[in-house]
């Protein structure tokens, strides 16, 4: 049972304040969704948790089972159990998908206990089949020339192979058609019974029909302004952010 | 895997060890006409070769150093030992190689490579070839594979027909020097219709300091034949500079194929100033695969003279320049016949103050109707101390040709690093992975065993690259 706590998090990018005191606690077995209009800091939150060097944390804490992630480098956070499925995954020519995933898995293990090749291949085959990815994608160069949808599937593949404690999925649904969306959801749901929690960042309620969240957080202007169950997402889909903002007394136009 | 390898390498140039062999013969330091005569005499050469050497020596004295590329003024010619003999005969069995020399080659993995995957293997130590052997199966096909010295004695007609023809002593000062004092190197003749895909390898080792190694390689691939030749080079670390000035001439006759792969990994006291040239006749293919990982200074521009209709020439190279290393390398493609094609792919990496320049030439002669060339130069500059330039010379004397040139210089992208590190890979491992991916088009062309070795070398070169 693990716990990711975000306390009073303030983040700036190039001197501009983006997050203005975010509080959020995620436990193993839980799936949380973060929704909110464009430019409210959802992706900034994910970047700050992962440790993207372009984002400066000016105040607050991020604790994973009591360990302050802010003191760790990006790779150390990953090895501590954080995974970020990125909105725009990088392309790395010359390195095959399979060899990259193998190295990533082994990076989480003691150097004298690498995963056996047979176990790795078996798991890779099974996971790719579940995500309806053709076998040839294992031998293609990491994300190079992948379509938007293939990249997203590949992020989920990595997540399932690495088995982090917590995954942050940053707009994993953007650019996906409905079939691909279902496949991605299947992958995340498969992880659910394990020692695993997820934070799903999305604009649309649609994804949440397939991955039903335990908690929905609504972010506006750098803060979590309200929280609720899956019904909150549906309400938002029906009425839009403007009405919710008005109800909460927040002036969105001010932004 | 990387940590393990780095531990194993112990953080030093892994081929830098030296052994303690006393030469059985040496001409001492410096060079004169008498020494040129002495070299010819000790090899018991025919008169025509002595004349060739003496003429070359006079040309060498007259020619200026190249007026381009890195500064060679620190190279002290007086201090160099131009000829050193360490074994009295060329062995065909490793057990007949003097013990210490044999141990050196064992540490370099040469006999093991031969047992596992070579059709033939040769080992040169200082000035002369100490070991030479070819599998019976390949001998039966009529392939001639021997030291250049032996070929002068055994195949004088072939040698006289081709030796110094593609690269005459007048070509450049280093070619003239080699022509005057050459010793060792490889001679290969592949008869008509014989195709060999199993690689033939020569390994060149400099052991002493202040050494000059001037091997001479001549390859003739007769019509409808093919050969796959690989050479490797290493030396111990010394504070005194050594000079390696090879001349390589490759003749690829009608409808034949030659691939010539070099993995040059000299220690950082070696000047490597080489002249390599091939001619490709009608419908033949010449491929250079050239990896330059070491040496103090490298100047090398292997060329293909596309002299027959439909001939193809390619160069695939990587150059890696670390601290205090200057690499000035490239390729030359000369289209002298119809419908010829060439391709140059050059990949360069520099770090820690290294300098790596691409210098290349593509020439379309008047008779080169319908010919095409594609040049691609990619460079990664890993820090602000290092530098790289791309210097292409193009000369087009025919309107009906096509030339493409692409050049790209990049730094390791922060975004790629972040992505890889977010999967738990350390910054060092992530950087290495990006570099490995960058050179992958090169390594995938190497025989498996060389690819593994090259990856190890690059991992070693990358060690400590993240400050």
Specify the structural class of chain B.
alpha/beta
Whole-Å distance between the termini of chain A? 39 Å
Order of helices and strands of chain A: EEEHEEHEHHHEHEHEEH
Net shape of chain B: globular
Number of helices of chain A: 8
Strand order of the largest sheet of chain B: 4-3-7-10-13-15-18-21-23-25
The share of residues in extended strands of chain B comes to: 25-35%
Assembly state (oligomeric): heterodimer
Structural class of chain A: alpha/beta
Total number of strands of chain B:
25
> Which parts of chain A are unreliable, with pLDDT below 50 for 5 consecutive residues or more?
none
Percent of residues in helices of chain B: 25-40%
| Discrete helix count of chain B | 12
Summary tags:
heterodimer, A: 255 residues, alpha/beta, Rossmann fold, 6-stranded mixed sheet, 4-stranded antiparallel sheet, 8 helices, B: 467 residues, 2 domains, 10-stranded mixed sheet, 6-stranded parallel beta barrel, 25 strands, 25% helix, 34% strand, globular
Description:
The complex is a heterodimer of chains A (255) and B (467). Chain A has helices spanning 42-50, 74-80, 97-107, 117-130, 148-162, 178-191, 206-210, 230-248, and strands at 3-13, 16-27, 31-35, 56-64, 67-68, 82-85, 166-170, 197-201, 215-220, 223-228. Chain A has 255 residues and is an alpha/beta fold. In chain A, strands 6-7-8-3-9-10 form a 6-stranded mixed sheet, with helices on both faces. The longest helix of chain A has 19 residues, at 230-248. The model of chain A has no long low-confidence stretch (mean pLDDT 93). Chain B is 25% helix and 34% strand. Chain B has helices spanning 2-9, 33-42, 47-62, 99-107, 110-117, 136-140, 148-154, 156-162, 173-181, 414-421, 427-443, 448-462; strands at residues 25-26, 84-85, 120-125, 128-134, 144-147, 186-190, 200-205, 212-213, 216-221, 226-234, 242-244, 247-252, 257-264, 270-280, 285-292, 297-300, 303-306, 312-321, 326-329, 332-335, 341-350, 355-364, 372-381, 387-396, 402-410. Chain B has 2 domains: 2-300, no CATH class; 421-467, no CATH class. The radius of gyration of chain B is 22 Å and the shape is globular. In chain B, helix 2 runs antiparallel to helix 3, helix 10 (414-421) crosses helix 11 and helix 11 (427-443) runs antiparallel to helix 12 (448-462). Chain B is built from 12 helices and 25 strands. Chain A: InterPro entries: AAA+_ATPase, ABC_transporter-like_ATP-bd, ABC_transporter-like_CS, FeS-cluster_ATPase_SufC, P-loop_NTPase. Chain A: It comes from Ligilactobacillus ceti DSM 22408.
């Amino acid at each position: 049972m693990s716990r990711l706590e975000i306390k009073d998090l303030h983040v700036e990018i190039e001197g501009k304040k983006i997050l203005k005191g975010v509080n959020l606690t995620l436990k193993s077995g839980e799936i949380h969704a973060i929704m909110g209009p464009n430019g409210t800091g959802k992706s900034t939150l994910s970047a700050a948790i992962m440790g993207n060097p372009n984002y400066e944390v000016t105040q607050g804490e991020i604790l994973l089972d009591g360990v302050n992630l802010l003191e760790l480098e990006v790779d150390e956070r990953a090895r501590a159990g954080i995974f970020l499925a990125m909105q725009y995954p990088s392309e790395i020519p010359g390195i095959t998908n399979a060899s990259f995933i193998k190295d990533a898995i082994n990076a989480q293990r003691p150097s004298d206990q690498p995963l056996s090749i047979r176990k790795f291949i078996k798991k890779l085959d099974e996971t790719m089949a579940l995500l309806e990815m053709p076998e040839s994608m294992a031998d293609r160069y990491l994300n190079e020339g992948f379509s938007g949808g293939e990249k997203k599937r590949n992020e989920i593949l990595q997540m399932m192979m690495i088995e982090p404690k917590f995954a942050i999925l940053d707009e994993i649904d953007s650019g996906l058609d409905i079939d691909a969306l279902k496949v991605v959801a299947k992958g995340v749901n498969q992880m659910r019974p394990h020692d695993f929690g997820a934070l799903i960042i999305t604009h649309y309620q649609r994804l949440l029909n397939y991955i039903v969240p335990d908690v929905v957080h609504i972010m506006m202007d750098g803060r979590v302004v309200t929280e609720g169950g899956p019904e909150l997402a549906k309400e938002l889909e029906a009425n839009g952010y403007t009405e919710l903002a008005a109800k909460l007394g927040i002036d969105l136009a001010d932004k | 895997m990387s940590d393990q390898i780095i531990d194993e390498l112990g953080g030093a140039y892994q081929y830098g060890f030296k052994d303690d062999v006393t030469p059985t013969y040496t001409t001492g330091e410096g060079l004169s006409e008498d020494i040129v005569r002495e070299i010819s005499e000790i090899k018991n050469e025919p008169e025509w070769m002595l004349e060739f050497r003496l003429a070359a020596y006079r040309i060498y004295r007259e020619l200026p150093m190249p007026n381009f590329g890195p500064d060679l003024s620190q190279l002290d010619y007086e201090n160099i030992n131009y000829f050193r003999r360490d074994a009295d005969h060329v062995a065909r069995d490793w057990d007949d190689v003097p013990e210490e020399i044999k141990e050196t080659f064992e540490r370099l993995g040469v006999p093991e490579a031969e047992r596992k995957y070579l059709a033939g293997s040769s080992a040169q130590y200082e000035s002369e070839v100490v070991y030479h052997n070819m599998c019976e199966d390949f001998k039966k096909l009529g392939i001639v594979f021997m030291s250049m010295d032996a070929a002068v004695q055994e195949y004088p007609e072939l040698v006289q027909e081709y030796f110094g023809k593609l690269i005459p002593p007048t070509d450049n000062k280093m070619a003239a020097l080699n022509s005057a004092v050459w010793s060792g190197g490889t001679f290969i003749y592949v008869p008509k219709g014989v195709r060999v895909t199993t690689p033939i390898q020569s390994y060149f080792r400099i052991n002493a300091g202040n050494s000059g190694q001037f091997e001479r390689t001549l390859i003739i691939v007769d019509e409808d034949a093919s050969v796959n030749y690989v050479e490797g080079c290493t030396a111990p670390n010394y504070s005194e500079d050594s000079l390696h000035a090879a001349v390589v001439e490759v003749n690829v006759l009608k409808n034949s194929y030659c691939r010539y792969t070099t993995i040059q990994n000299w220690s950082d006291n070696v000047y490597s100033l080489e002249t390599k040239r091939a001619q490709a006749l009608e419908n033949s293919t010449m491929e250079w695969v050239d990896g330059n990982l070491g040496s103090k200074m490298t100047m090398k521009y292997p060329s293909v003279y596309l002299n027959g209709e439909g001939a193809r020439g390619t160069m695939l190279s990587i150059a890696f320049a670390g601290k205090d290393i200057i690499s000035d390398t490239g390729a030359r493609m000369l289209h002298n016949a119809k419908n010829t094609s060439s391709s140059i792919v050059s990949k360069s990496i520099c770090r820690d103050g290294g300098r790596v320049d691409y210098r290349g030439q593509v020439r379309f002669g008047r008779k080169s109707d319908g010919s095409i060339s594609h040049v691609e130069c990619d460079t990664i500059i890993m820090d602000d101390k290092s530098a790289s330039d791309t210097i292409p010379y193009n000369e087009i004397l025919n309107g009906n040709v096509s030339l493409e040139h692409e050049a790209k210089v990049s730094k390791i992208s922060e975004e790629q690093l972040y992505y890889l590190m977010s999967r738990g890979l350390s910054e060092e491992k992530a950087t290495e992975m990006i570099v490995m991916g960058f050179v992958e088009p090169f390594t995938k062309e190497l025989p498996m065993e060389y690819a593994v070795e090259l990856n190890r070398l690059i991992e070693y070169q990358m060690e400590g690259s993240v400050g």
